[in-house]
Amino acid sequence: MPELPEVETIRRQLAPIVEGRRLEQIEVLDPRWSRPLAPHELEDALRGRRIERLGRRGKYLLWRFSEDVHLAQHLRMTGSVLAEPDPEPIHTRVRMTLARGRAGAVRRLAVVDPRRFGTGELLLGQAALDAFLAARLGPEPFDAGFTAEGMRALLKGRRAPIKALLLDQRRIAGVGNIYADEALFRAGIHPLRVAGRLTGAQAARLRETVIDALSAGIDARGASIDDFRHVDGVRGSFQDRRAVHRVR
């Protein structure tokens, strides 16, 4: 947590707030967040820049700033981004202040992360961003190239359990425990089944259920089983619709 649906939910909520506005101030309160850069190095690189676009790849939030400067933010297990939290949560790791917009527009953002695993990676230029993502992420289930044939090729000869393969971000980007469990349950495949032993029909079915589970998570605006919250602090609702993950 958060997985692709939770990160996409945050992106959709944050994009209208931040795109086109200047980052007036950023304070990195936890040096772990910006490693290997010192907090002041990341702050100096981003302060005063215009936020041109907020994108997503897998579980990464991708902040594109003016002059081809990028921030790849990973929320890891317990991260969230809150708008105008009052009071400020005790586990705030980063504060962002946006330049004034229209009356009533959000100005303060807080990156909150109780377990301190979240990160923010500064990347200078599109080529650096592309190389960073290519080294860490495989195709997304929503990519045009994520076909039944592609899924079969991905599984061929793999001796790892199928759930472990689904969780490997270098193979498929964005799937974590919640949605891997849901997809496998919908496909009728045991999580410990050797990936390379799935039939062609099972691989094609699994591709469909991965997409279906992630789509359902996005429609429900994420799952708040533990720490995940929307930008306004509201909980997602997929935890009320899941078929198997942590069901007692």
Computed structural class: alpha+beta
Beta-strand percentage range: 15-25%
| Strand order in the sheet with the most strands | 1-6-7-5
Mean pLDDT: 90
Cα-based radius of gyration, to the nearest Å: 19 Å
Span between N and C termini? Answer: 19 Å
Number of helices: 8
Description:
With 248 residues, the chain is α+β, with helices and mostly antiparallel strands. Helix content is 33%, strand content 19%. Strands 1-6-7-5 form a four-stranded antiparallel beta sheet. The protein starts with a helix and ends in a 29-residue tail after the last helix.
Give keywords.
248 residues, four-stranded antiparallel β-sheet, 8 helices, 8 strands, elongated
Short description:
With 248 residues, this protein is α+β, with helices and mostly antiparallel strands.
Q: What is the fold's blueprint, element by element?
A:
Blueprint: H1 4-18, E1 23-28, H2 31-34, H3 39-46, E2 51-57, E3 60-65, E4 69-74, E5 80-83, E6 92-98, E7 108-112, E8 119-124, H4 126-134, H5 148-155, H6 162-167, H7 177-187, H8 200-219
Antiparallel strand pairs: 1-6, 2-3, 3-4, 4-8, 5-7, 6-7
Helix pairs in contact: 1-8, 5-8, 7-8
